[in-house]
Specification:
The chain has about 900 residues and is α/β, with parallel strands linked by helices. The chain has 34 helices and 33 strands. Helix 5 packs parallel to helix 7 (about 180-195), helix 13 packs across helix 19 (about 525-535) and helix 20 (about 545-555) packs parallel to helix 22 (about 590-615). The structure holds phosphoenolpyruvate and magnesium ion (MG).
C-alpha cells in the first residue's frame, strides 16, 4: 500500500475520522490537548479495505509500520512487549467512522503468555494475573478463531467456567480464587488445542496479528452488517484498529473503571451522568456483572480524582462543543481516559442540550440545528416506553407508526371498535394480516396496530402515522390466523385477549405490557423549532383530513394543509350506506334521481367537514383533493357477500338488496384497480362527484367567510397523466364554482391544481401547467408507477432487493433521486417554463422524510406536506437543507 498505514496518537487529530475511525481520531485529539490517554497508535480504515480487496490478506508492509509504533509506546512507558520482567500489555479495539457500539470486536490484555504470567504472579496479585489471562484467552479465541472452528466462542468458554464453579461448589466468578483461575486458564488452553488443533499462541506478535485481523473480520459479522443496514451506514468504509497500552482498573481498591456522559443522555440536564466500579475493568461496568455506583456517590468518596474527572469532562465539552460519552480507568490512583465520543441521546435530550449549549455560548443556533437528527424529534411527541424498562422483543417489523402502545390483541376491526376507544374503553392492539379501509374504525379504536403484511406506505402505515397510532407493519415474523384468532411467532402463540405491546418507533413486538409514558412538549422544543423556522425556505404543510388533525398539525407548526384526502370522509359509519347508494346508482340512467339524492346527502356531510377544516385553519391554505381510490374500496368485500348469500340460501332465505350489491360489486371488479377507474378518471366518468365535492368545498368556505373568517381552498385533481383529463375536470369544476359564487353572492379565492403522480404527467408538465395554478407531487403513486412496484405488495421483494444491494434503500421511504427524482426535476423545470410562479409541493409520504426533504429543497419546491406528527421533523430537515447540511451522509 502506498499510503501511510499506521498513525501514532501524537501524529493525528479529530479531523481524521474517515481514516482512523471515530475512536482513533478522538484518542489522537485527546492526546493532542494533553489529556491522560494511555499511549498507542491506530491502523487505518484503508488497511481494512485493502484486507478485503486482497481476498482477506493483511497488506504487505503493515508490520514494518506497526513495529516502530510499538517501540514508541514501549519507550513512552518504559515497558516491553513480551518481556516477562516488565511486560507491555495492549488493548486492540475496533472503531469505524460512525460509532457502532458493541457490534465489532475488541481484545484486552493482549501480550500475556505462560512465561509472563508465571513471572507476574510473583510480583503482583496472582488472582488478578490469572483473571486477566483467562479473559484474554477467551476473547482472542472467540474473535480470532470462532468463525473457523465450532465450539470456540465466548459461550463455550463460559460453559467451561460454569462447570469449574460447580466443581468448586461456588456460584460467583469472584468466589473463584487464584488457584481456581489458574486451573481455568489450563482448561481454556486445552480447549483451544482440542478444538483448533493448535496451541493458544504464546508469541505476543502472533497474538497481535491475529487480533488485528479478527477486528477487520468483525467489520463483516452479522451484527455489524445488520446494524449498518439499520443505521444506513455504508458497508464500504471499513473499520480502523486502535492499539493502546492497557491500564488496569482491577488491581485493587485504589483502582476502578467508569463510563460517563457529560450531560444526562435521557433528559439533557446539564449534570454529569454515569457509573463507576471500584476494582473493575470497563467491561464489568457495561456488562452489568456488578451493580455500579452512581458517579455522584463516587464523587463524595474520592474528591481528588473526581475533580480530575470532572475537569476532563469540562475540557472535552468545551473542546468538542458537544455532550461526550467517555470511558475512563483509574490505576493505583492515576486517572486515564480511554475513549470519548459524541454521546447518543434521546430526542428530548438532543433538543435540550442543543438549546442549552446555545444559551451557554458554546455553539451557534445554526450549529445547534445542524446537530440534531430530525428523526429524533419523533421521540419528543409520542408516548414512549417508560425510561429504563427492560423488555424482550418477540418479533420485528417495519417501524410504521412511532410511539409505544400496550393492549390486548384483537383480530378484527369490529371487535376492536366495540372494546376499544369510543367503545368499552379497553386498551386494544389491532392485529391483522393486512388492513383495508374497512379496518379504519378498528384502527382508530386501538392503541396500536400490528400487521403481518404491508410496507411503509401501506394503508395501515399511512393512516396510523396520520393519526399518531403506534404501528408495526410488514411484520413477516408473525403468522396471523384470523379464524383461530391468534398469531404465532416460532413456538409462541398469542391468542385474542392476550396482552402485547408495540414499540412503533423501532418496529418491535413485545409480549405482555410495558409501562408507557406521555411525551411532554418542552419549552426548549419550541425554541429550537423556532430557530429552524428562521432559516428554512421550504414551507411546511400537513396531510390532514379532519379538524382535529388540522389543529394538531398547526400545534406542531404546519402552515396549512398540503393534502386533504376527501375519500377518508366517506369511510365513516353513517356515510357508508349513502356512498354505496351513490356508487350503485351511478351507471344506471333510470336511477339518476336516486344517484343525485345520494350526492345531495353527501354534500351536506362534506360541506360540514370542509367548514370545520377551514375554521381550524384560521385562514391558512388547504389543498383539498377530489376523490381518488377505486370505488370498490367503498363496497363490501366480495367473498363475504358470496358467503352471506350462500348461508341465507342454505336456510331457504334470500336478501334482494345483498344480491343486488353482489351484482354491482362483480360488475365493478377490476383486475388491477390501482391502474383502473380511479383518480381523475372517476371524476370524468361520474362528473356528479366533482360537482358535489366542488360545491361542498366552496360552500364550506363561503360559510366561514360569511361568518367573518378566511378560507383559501386549493382544489386538486389526482392522477392526471394527460392535460385533456385536467381540462375536462376543470370545465366541470369551474361551472360548479361559478354557480356557488353566484348563489352565495361572494367571490371565493380558490385555486385549481393537480397532483403529479403519473410519469406521463411529469413528462408533459409544461402542457399541464397551462391548466393548473399549482402542482403537488404524489410521490407514493409516482414511485409505484415509475418503478412498476405495487406500493401495497412490494415489501416481499424490496427487503431482498435492499439486502442484496439491488437498491440502496426502499424507494417508498426515501425518494429515488435518480429515477423518480429526475421525473420531478423535469416536471419542475417544464412547469415553471410555462408559469414561472407555479406553486410546487409534495404530499406523498416522502414529504416527511429528511433526505427527501433535502432533495425537495434542492429542486426548488415551495413546500413539503406530511402527516401532523412529522411536521416538526420536516421543519428541522428543511432548516438543515437550507443550511446546506442535508442529511449526514453515511
Ligand atoms: C401519492 O400518491 O403520493 C399521494 C399523496 O396520494 P395517495 O397516497 O393518496 O395515493
Ligand atoms: Mg396518489
Amino acid at each position: 500500500m502506498a499510503n501511510k498505514m499506521v498513525y501514532l496518537f501524537e501524529e493525528a487529530d479529530r479531523t481524521m475520522r474517515d481514516l482512523l475511525g471515530g475512536k482513533g481520531a478522538n484518542l489522537a485529539e485527546m492526546t493532542k490537548i494533553g489529556l491522560p490517554v494511555p499511549p498507542g497508535f491506530t491502523i487505518t480504515t484503508e488497511v481494512c479495505n485493502a484486507y478485503y480487496d486482497n481476498g482477506k490478506q493483511i497488506p504487505d508492509g503493515l508490520s514494518d509500520e506497526v513495529l516502530p509504533a510499538l517501540t514508541h509506546v514501549e519507550n513512552k512507558l518504559g515497558k516491553k512487549f513480551g518481556d516477562p520482567d516488565n511486560p507491555l500489555l495492549l488493548s486492540v479495539r475496533s472503531g469505524a467512522k460512525f460509532s457502532m457500539p458493541g457490534m465489532m470486536d475488541t481484545v484486552l490484555n493482549l501480550g500475556l503468555n505462560d512465561a509472563i504470567v508465571e513471572k507476574l504472579v510473583t510480583v503482583t496479585d496472582p488472582r488478578f494475573v490469572y483473571d486477566s489471562y483467562r479473559r484474554f484467552i477467551m476473547m482472542l479465541s472467540d474473535v480470532a478463531y470462532s468463525d473457523k472452528f465450532a465450539h470456540i466462542s465466548k459461550h463455550d468458554f463460559e460453559h467451561i467456567f460454569a462447570e469449574l464453579k460447580a466443581e468448586l461448589g461456588v456460584k460467583e466468578d469472584l468466589e473463584v480464587d487464584a488457584a481456581g483461575l489458574k486451573t481455568l486458564c489450563e482448561k481454556y488452553k486445552s480447549h483451544v488445542m482440542a478444538q483448533t488443533g493448535s496451541a493458544f499462541p504464546q508469541d505476543p506478535y502472533d497474538q497481535l496479528r491475529a487480533a488485528v485481523e479478527a477486528v477487520f473480520r468483525s467489520w463483516n459479522n452479522e451484527r455489524a452488517k445488520v446494524y449498518r443496514a439499520k443505521e444506513k451506514i455504508s458497508d464500504d468504509i471499513g473499520t480502523a484498529v486502535s492499539v493502546q497500552a492497557m491500564v488496569f482498573g482491577n488491581r485493587g481498591n485504589d483502582c476502578g473503571s467508569g463510563v460517563a456522559f457529560t450531560r444526562n443522555a435521557s433528559t439533557g440536564e446539564n449534570v454529569i451522568f454515569g457509573e463507576y466500579l471500584t476494582n473493575a475493568q470497563g467491561e464489568d461496568v457495561v456488562a452489568g456483572v456488578r451493580t455500579p455506583t452512581p458517579i455522584s456517590e463516587w464523587a463524595a468518596a474520592n474528591p481528588t480524582i473526581y475533580k480530575q474527572f470532572e475537569d476532563t469532562c469540562q475540557i472535552l465539552e468545551q473542546h468538542y462543543k458537544d455532550m461526550q460519552d467517555i470511558e475512563f480507568t483509574i490505576e493505583h490512583g492515576t486517572f486515564y481516559i480511554l475513549q470519548c465520543r459524541s454521546g447518543k441521546r434521546t430526542g428530548t435530550a438532543a433538543v435540550k442540550i442543543a438549546v442549552d449549549q446555545v444559551n451557554e455560548g458554546l455553539i451557534t443556533k445554526n450549529e445547534a440545528l445542524a446537530r440534531v437528527e430530525p428523526e429524533l424529534l419523533n421521540q419528543c411527541l409520542l408516548p414512549v416506553i417508560a425510561q429504563g424498562t427492560k423488555y424482550t422483543v418477540l418479533a420485528k417489523g417495519l417501524p410504521a407508526g412511532p410511539g409505544a402502545a400496550t393492549g390486548i390483541a384483537i383480530f378484527d376491526a369490529e371487535t376492536a371498535a366495540i372494546l376499544g376507544k369510543g367503545g368499552e374503553g379497553k386498551k386494544v392492539i389491532l392485529v391483522r394480516a393486512d388492513t383495508s379501509p374497512d379496518d379504519l374504525k378498528g384502527m382508530l379504536a386501538a392503541q396500536g396496530v400490528l400487521t403481518a403484511k404491508g410496507g411503509m406506505t401501506s394503508h395501515a402505515a399511512l393512516v396510523a402515522r396520520g393519526f399518531g397510532i403506534p404501528t408495526v407493519a410488514g411484520c413477516s415474523d408473525i403468522s396471523v390466523d384470523g379464524h383461530k384468532r391468534q398469531f404465532t411467532v416460532g413456538g409462541t402463540v398469542i391468542s385474542e385477549g392476550d396482552e402485547i405491546s408495540l414499540n412503533g418507533t423501532l418496529g418491535e413486538v413485545i409480549v405482555g405490557s410495558v409501562p408507557v409514558e406521555d411525551a411532554i412538549l418542552t419549552v426548549e422544543f419550541g425554541t429550537f423549532l423556532g430557530w429552524a423556522d428562521e432559516v428554512r425556505t421550504l414551507g411546511i404543510r400537513a396531510n390532514a383530513d379532519t379538524p382535529k388533525d388540522t389543529l394538531l398539525a398547526i400545534k406542531f407548526g404546519a402552515e396549512g394543509i398540503g393534502l386533504c384526502r376527501t375519500e377518508h370522509m366517506f369511510f365513516e359509519e353513517e356515510r357508508r350506506p349513502v356512498v354505496q347508494r351513490m356508487i350503485l346508482t351511478a351507471e344506471n340512467k333510470e336511477r339518476a334521481a336516486e344517484h343525485q339524492a345520494a350526492l345531495d346527502e353527501l354534500l351536506v356531510f362534506q360541506r360540514e367537514d370542509f367548514k370545520g377544516i377551514f375554521e381550524a385553519l384560521g385562514g391558512l391554505p388547504a389543498t383539498i383533493r377530489l376523490i381518488d381510490p377505486p370505488l370498490h374500496e367503498f363496497l363490501p368485500n366480495i367473498e363475504e357477500l358470496i358467503e352471506e348469500i350462500a348461508t341465507l340460501k342454505a336456510t331457504g332465505k334470500s336478501d334482494p338488496a345483498k344480491e343486488e350489491m353482489l351484482r354491482a360489486v362483480r360488475s365493478m371488479h377490476e383486475i388491477n384497480p390501482m391502474m383502473g377507474l380511479r383518480g381523475c378518471r372517476l371524476s370524468i366518468v361520474f362528473p356528479g362527484i366533482v360537482v358535489m365535492q366542488t360545491r361542498a368545498i366552496l360552500e364550506g368556505a363561503a360559510l366561514v367567510m360569511k361568518a367573518g373568517g378566511k378560507a383559501y381552498p386549493e382544489i386538486m385533481i389526482p392522477l392526471v397523466g394527460h392535460v385533456n383529463e385536467l381540462r375536462t375536470v376543470r370545465a366541470e369544476l369551474e361551472k360548479a364554482a361559478k354557480a356557488v359564487e353566484a348563489e352565495q353572492g361572494i367571490s371565493i379565492p380558490y385555486q385549481f391544481g393537480t397532483m403529479i403522480e403519473v410519469p406521463r404527467g411529469a413528462l408533459t408538465a409544461d402542457e399541464i401547467a397551462e391548466e393548473a395554478e399549482f402542482f403537488s407531487f404524489g410521490t407514493n403513486d409516482l414511485t409505484q408507477m415509475t418503478f412498476g412496484f405495487s406500493r401495497d405488495d412490494s415489501d416481499k421483494f424490496l427487503k431482498p432487493y435492499v439486502a442484496q444491494k439491488i437498491l440502496a434503500g426502499d424507494p417508498f421511504e426515501s425518494i429515488d433521486e435518480t429515477g423518480v427524482g429526475l421525473l420531478m426535476e423535469i416536471a419542475v423545470q417544464k412547469g415553471r417554463s410555462v408559469k414561472p410562479d407555479l406553486k410546487l409541493g409534495i404530499c406523498g409520504e416522502h414529504g416527511g422524510e429528511p433526505r427527501s426533504i433535502a432533495f425537495c429543497h434542492k429542486i426548488g419546491l415551495n413546500y413539503v406536506s406530511c402527516s401532523p406528527y412529522r411536521v416538526p421533523i420536516a421543519r428541522l430537515a428543511a432548516a438543515q437543507a437550507a443550511l446546506g447540511k442535508g442529511v449526514s451522509d453515511k
